[in-house]
Amino acid sequence: xxxxxxxxxxxxxxxxxxxxxxxxxxxxxxxxxxxxxxxxxxxxxxxxxxxxxxxxxxxxxxxxxxxxxxxxxxxxxxxxxxxxxxxxxxxxxxxxxxxxxxxxxxxxxxxxxxxxxxxxxxxxxxxxxxxxxxxxxxxxxxxxxxxxxxxxxxxxxxxxxxxxxxxxxxxxxxxxxxxxxxxxxxxxxxxxxxxxxxxxxxxxxxxxxxxxxxxxxxxxxxxxxxxxxxxxxxxxxxxxxxxxxxxxxxxxxxxxxxxxxxxxxxxxxxxxxxxxxxxxxxxxxxxxxxxxxxxxxxxxxxxxxxxxxxxxxxxxxxxxxxxxxxxxxxxxxxxxxxxxxxxxxxxxxxxxxxxxxxxxxxxxxxxxxxxxxxxxxxxxxxxxxxxxxxxxxxxxxxxxxxxxxxxxxxxxxxxxxxxxxxxxxxxxxxxxxxxxxxxxxxxxxxxxxxxxxxxxxxxxxxxxxxxxxxxxxxxxxxxxxxxxxxxxxxxxxxxxxxxxxxxxxxxxxxxxxxxxxxxxxxxxxxxxxxxxxxxxxxxxx
Amino acid sequence: xxxxxxxxxxxxxxxxxxxxxxxxxxxxxxxxxxxxxxxxxxxxxxxxxxxxxxxxxxxxxxxxxxxxxxxxxxxxxxxxxxxxxxxxxxxxxxxxxxxxxxxxxxxxxxxxxxxxxxxxxxxxxxxxxxxxxxxxxxxxxxxxxxxxxxxxxxxxxxxxxxxxxxxxxxxxxxxxxxxxxxxxxxxxxxxxxxxxxxxxxxxxxxxxxxxxxxxxxxxxxxxxxxxxxxxxxxxxxxxxxxxxxxxxxxxxxxxxxxxxxxxxxxxxxxxxxxxxxxxxxxxxxxxxxxxxxxxxxxxxxxxxxxxxxxxxxxxxxxxxxxxxxxxxxxxxxxxxxxxxxxxxxxxxxxxxxxxxxxxxxxxxxxx
Amino acid sequence: xxxxxxxxxxxxxxxxxxxxxxxxxxxxxxxxxxxxxxxxxxxxxxxxxxxxxxxxxxxxxxxxxxxxxxxxxxxxxxxxxxxxxxxxxxxxxxxxxxxxxxxxxxxxxxxxxxxxxxxxxxxxxxxxxxxxxxxxxxxxxxxxxxxxxxxxxxxxxxxxx
Lengths: 541, 367, 161
Hints:
The complex is a heterotrimer of chains A (541), B (367) and C (161).
Chain A: E1 15-24, E2 27-37, E3 42-47, H1 53-60, H2 64-68, E4 73-78, E5 81-82, H3 88-93, E6 96-99, H4 111-115, E7 122-123, H5 128-131, E8 137-138, H6 140-153, H7 169-181, E9 188-192, H8 200-215, E10 219-223, H9 227-233, E11 236-241, E12 244-249, H10 256-264, E13 283-292, E14 299-307, E15 311-315, H11 322-329, E16 335-341, E17 344-345, H12 351-356, E18 359-362, H13 366-370, H14 377-389, E19 393-396, E20 401-404, H15 406-419, H16 436-450, E21 454-458, H17 466-483, E22 486-490, H18 494-500, E23 503-508, E24 511-517, H19 522-529, H20 533-540
Parallel strand pairs in A: 3-10, 3-11, 6-9, 9-10, 15-22, 15-23, 18-21, 21-22
Antiparallel strand pairs in A: 1-2, 1-4, 4-5, 7-8, 11-12, 13-14, 13-16, 16-17, 19-20, 23-24
Helix pairs in contact in A: 6-7, 10-19, 14-15, 14-16, 19-20
Chain B: H1 2-11, H2 13-29, H3 33-52, H4 55-59, H5 68-84, H6 89-116, H7 122-144, E1 167-169, E2 182-187, E3 190-195, H8 196-213, H9 216-226, H10 228-233, H11 238-264, E4 266-268, H12 272-286, H13 296-321, H14 326-359
Helix pairs in contact in B: 2-13, 3-8, 3-11, 3-13, 5-6, 5-7, 5-11, 5-12, 6-7, 6-11, 9-11, 12-13, 12-14, 13-14
Chain C: H1 3-32, E1 34-40, E2 44-46, E3 49-51, E4 56-61, E5 69-72, E6 76-82, E7 85-93, E8 100-109, E9 117-120, H2 121-125, E10 132-134
Parallel strand pairs in C: 1-9
Antiparallel strand pairs in C: 1-6, 2-3, 4-5, 4-7, 7-8, 9-10
């Protein structure tokens, strides 16, 4: 192995991001992002969800979505020349390789076939003259040779004839990386959460392999939520928050805790006055070993207990499974495990039963699950209650015939319109015509009218304006205090949870990484979200 | 060991059931071994080419392609012209194939483009497309031929002056290929005819498929068959490749239909192609193929088992309940039933895979 | 290798191949075309010369002696001939010992309307320059009507032979 000296101060850097900004429909997601990367250097890019990491990588990789939404500002240079890619294939031609979070390996192909997908070695035969280049026969021997040489660069052994479907996850990740570096011109490798699916020992091997690659002169952008890995591997760390570079640091001058605090930032400290001592109360909901198969929000093994009368928060990064918990318990996605509510076990995968047991759910999917968009407000508010509890119905002939009680529906609707300040023309207005915040209020009213003992609320403030946000959160607090309703709030906004909840559990990779009182410092929650439980625990001590 | 045996039994359950059924029906029917061998050889020669034409779209992940019905129509149009010009023998078959080729390419191109707009629903789309094209085919054959297209032979044209007869006897073409290189051998008292020429063609086709799998185009098709999105992101021209797969299949089905009809000797102008699609797909499935996976051996096993049931079941039915028609009912019942079963099995398998991956979601703490 | 010459080369190769396929089709048409030819054995007068009927003879088509056809007086034979050129050998035989009294061979090309004309065997035996005589059954454009009029409903038609 030759140790190349890759520092070339006189030549332009391999990658230069200069003042890059991006707006999605007037919403600034990236602003004045600048950094440089030399050959053989590893740059760690960290930030919360929505900090702009993926947008930045989409710009770098020439994803069509960027051009479709109005392009970007600023300049990206590769080896001193401006690079404005119109498709990922241009980026590949320029020597950028990308390893995605999800595997894009073909299950029935061998390692060799996957590594050389669409770049196979071929041999000429006369039929090419008639049917074109694609009728060339594959040169299996040469393909094996090329694949083996790519794998050997990683200094890791995989049998090049193994079929992808039969490989452990770690090997799949190596195959993906081998695919990117098997291109002769790959100079820069973007790795998006490469260790997320790996076990600890696999991740270690991967980190070692990446170091070897860097020594061979390949530069890397390493995106990870696992800050320890970032500190361990990278030469330089760029912290993004709200679309800006808040800090560029060298690992030796910082530590995981500091990085976490940069990422989370010192946002407005909420009113954490809710320190009700609830030691005397009993558990109302006990969840043990819950798993939920919700696409994109997989819950693997979650256990927690909610006390009667508290507001319990569920937080975590997007895609880590926090949304799956409420959906699983309410029976909207296939789930398993044990859930005890109010002393009795409840069957999973049976939404009707759960509703009958005095639990209600305000879904994060307002327009899909939450509302009957083409129906009026009063209908929407009364619907679940009518179906589940048989309210808002007038009985005739001893219950043989049941008619809708329009009067009762209107009264209930008017009451909630006033209570929640739903802005509408009347209770007859159709839900589809309301603004996001008012739709959310209708959803809440629909849940309140059932009068549940336990209310699940998912992403209550997503996509609504600040005024409505406050009202929604205040309403949750009020029903909790006045009616003693237990509320479980799921939200990606940590500050919001800290403002309303008594206790917050953080979910990471489908598992609970910790439960803390709401007044714990934000950094600690940040660390829990990054999966750094050990450090978070140490900090608490 | 037990597990592997179980796996083998499950994945080959369909052929095993048919072997069992045949084993029961053969003794009841009382046919001699020689007769059955002759029938199987005839039917293998007759049908294998058609069934083989289904393999390439399956490789490209397009499922069981009823688009081959379009190819069969093209083959029949070729045959109509060969008959009209009274070109007989092998030259007649070659001419029919040559005429059918551009028609099949065109129909395959249309079909492929339609299927690109119905990804994931190829089977039902191609089936309905078959009905639609059948309408066009009927217009051409029933009206345009003799009116617009120069078809004059009284052997073909209805007495009203245009339109092709329902049943056309392929005088001069019948068995032209099968008799070209016939090989006879004795099996017991029975003289078995073996059409070497036809089998040579089928062999060439098999070699073509094997070779094709090893080409860049074949590799691309396999990639698309496994994961269209991944293939697309690797830069493979997915839609174009799918169209090519259908065109190859359609052209080969046209040739297959020519071979099929020269063996039968009579062309049911308005029915032959419809039965072709249904029976070919049923035969392939009985051979153990699935919607996503089919091999050359599935073709030969399938054709043999399917037609063994065909041959044996009427007599067996007659012996058992005195009804020879049972056989015909049985074959239609089996064809539709096996296709329905294959679809259900496919859905069931996918569900099982999903469940298996869901099982992996449960924490390690749970057993 | 640059792109342009390769493209031109491939274009030429593909065009030639398509032309070859068309030529193959035409060749197949010529080789495989089947003609129904009427052969008449009767006394005919061509160009003022009379050729007498063959009392007893044999017809050998394309030299295939195993398929020799016996000819008797006033026979009219319908022969299906595949391909455009054929040789007809007419042997005039002795009725007692089958010995050939006269052999005449004639090459024919299928460049005439086989519905309109018959071939006179007597003319061949007499080595006439012209051997075609009008077909008395042929009436202008009208063809011999098929036996059945409508679509046959027999779906699983049994092959005729």
